[in-house]
Design goal:
- This protein is of the alpha+beta class.
- The chain folds into two domains: 71 residues, no CATH class; 92 residues, no CATH class.
- It contains six helices and six strands; from the N terminus they run αααααββββββα.
- Helix 1 crosses helix 3, helix 2 packs across helix 4 and helix 3 packs parallel to helix 4.
C-alpha cells in the first residue's frame, strides 16, 4: 500500500478524539515516513507550518491534517462564575449561589442566555432562557431544561434545592409535572442590605 493510501486510511479512522490520539501516538512511535507525508498533506492544503513541525506530537499533526486544530482549542469545560444578578423577568434580586454557581432566578426560574460554555459569558444573544420542563437526574437531583426565546438554543441546569435561596418548590413541581414555564409575577425585591 502506498504512503498516500495509508495516510488516507488513517485519517478516515480518526473520527473521534480518542482515535486521533491513538493514531498520533502510533505516528510518533512507529512511522516517521507517514508523519512526514502528513505534514506534506497539511502544507498542500494551505496550512502554514513552521520548520520544527516535524517535532510536534502526532496527535496535533492529525488535528491539523483534519482541520480540527481550532476545534481542539475551544474551551468545553465549565468556568465556575458565581455572581449576584437582578432577574430580567420578575425583578427579583438573586444572590450568589454559594456552593454551586446559580444561573437562573430562584423565583420564576428564568435565566439569560449569556454562556456558550457555562460561565464563559461568550454568548452574544442575551435573550431570555425560559424553563420548558424538568426531570429527575440521579445525583444531580432536579435538572431544569431551558430554551432561549430569541435564538432557540436549549440548555439544562441543576435546580438549587438547598441553601438560603432555594428554587421555588411550586414552580419546580409545575415543571416536573410537564406544565411548562411558571407564570411571572413582578417581585421588585431589594438588594440585600438596601432599605427603602
Amino acid at each position: 500500500m502506498t504512503i498516500a493510501r495509508r495516510l488516507d486510511s488513517l485519517l478516515l479512522q480518526a473520527d473521534r478524539r480518542s482515535k486521533m490520539k491513538a493514531i498520533g501516538r502510533w505516528l510518533d512511535e512507529r512511522d516517521p515516513a507517514l508523519k512526514a507525508a502528513l505534514l506534506r498533506r497539511a502544507r498542500e492544503r494551505g496550512v502554514d507550518l513552521p520548520d520544527e513541525t516535524i517535532e510536534w506530537p502526532g496527535k496535533r499533526l492529525v488535528r491539523l491534517a483534519l482541520a480540527k486544530e481550532g476545534e481542539s482549542r475551544a474551551r468545553s469545560n465549565p468556568i465556575k462564575k458565581d455572581e449576584a444578578f437582578r432577574c430580567m423577568c420578575c425583578g427579583t434580586w438573586v444572590p450568589e449561589g454559594g456552593r454551586s454557581p446559580r444561573n437562573h432566578c430562584n423565583v420564576c426560574l428564568r435565566s439569560r442566555h449569556v454562556d456558550i460554555v457555562p460561565g464563559d459569558r461568550a454568548a452574544e444573544c442575551r435573550g431570555i432562557m425560559e424553563p420548558t420542563g424538568a426531570e429527575m437526574a440521579g445525583r444531580a437531583g432536579i435538572v431544569i431544561r431551558f430554551r432561549c426565546l430569541c435564538c432557540g438554543v436549549r440548555t439544562r441546569n441543576r435546580a438549587v434545592r438547598e441553601g438560603p435561596y432555594p428554587d421555588d418548590e411550586r414552580a419546580l413541581r409545575v415543571l416536573l409535572a410537564g406544565g411548562g414555564a411558571p407564570p411571572i409575577s413582578k417581585n421588585r425585591g431589594m438588594e440585600p442590605g438596601v432599605e427603602e
